Amino acid sequence: MAEEIFTVGGDLPVRRLGFGTGGLVGPGYWGPRGGRAEARELLRTAVERGVTLIDTADNYGPEVAEELIAEALHPYGEQLVIATKGGVVRTGPDQWHVAGRPEQLREMCEASLRRLRVERIDLYQLHRFDPSVPMAEQLGALAQLRAEGKIRHIGLDTVTAGQLRLALESVPVASVQNAYNLLERGSAEVLALCEERGIAFLPYYPLGSGSLTRESAAAVTAVAAAHGAGTGQVALAWLLHHSRVLCPTPGTGSPEHLAENLDAATIHLSPRELAVLDVL
What we know:
It is built from 11 helices and 11 strands. The chain has helices spanning 36-48, 64-73, 102-116, 135-147, 161-168, 188-197, 211-214, 218-227, 231-242, 255-263, 271-278, and strands at 5-8, 12-15, 19-20, 53-55, 81-86, 88-92, 95-98, 121-126, 151-157, 175-177, 200-201. A 7-stranded parallel beta sheet has the order 3-4-5-8-9-10-11, with helices on one face. It has a two-stranded antiparallel sheet with strand order 1-2. It has a two-stranded antiparallel sheet with strand order 6-7. It is an alpha/beta fold. The chain has one domain (5-278): NADP-dependent oxidoreductase domain (TIM Barrel, Alpha-Beta Barrel), CATH 3.20.20.100.
């Protein structure tokens, strides 16, 4: 079976299959989805099932997901790692704007600290590079927050391999979040660089935003049938086998779907099955 634990930033061991909170907010990442009590219970269930990495962002809701995490899980267990993101301002469903000026990043980080009820954020990820602000200024703002003890580790979201190399010349980067899944591997160069540098890669849309379960190839269906599993579970199992640095954090608002996702960690794909899936 694929290695279950990855150590983020060299000092934060997490179970590689985590939980993303995008499914706890409404369509377009706007407003709540369903009742807050149900969302809090889902978060608690995820942790009870052994999840130690929870991925969120200040603009999920906005603010809703971070508030729910604190309501459900604070005070946090020693093994629980909360990763959040800043650098994007959401103004409506599916409406967002990059905001990477140093003063904006500081304000966002400090607001997340208050909502999550912590003095230091384990993993703070820049949601997007702001093209109107020099990269050095954005990374410098995060480095300063880290020096002040408000951030433990810095991560980057949606970057090219070239941007990651440049960033690594300025700051230690503990994680990357790019789209990556069984059928979408455009960030293969970024993944290779993460493997080389020991950087966690948190693939967003690990299930292809649902496309893998709706339009899965015959090969995926066959592998799933052999394991008595769903195609989405096979897609997650493939990520866990594909690279030791991949740490998928699929999100959902359904207790049943949460259980299915977490059970994917128990699926052992044979070398033959991996070969079939690798060429898709």
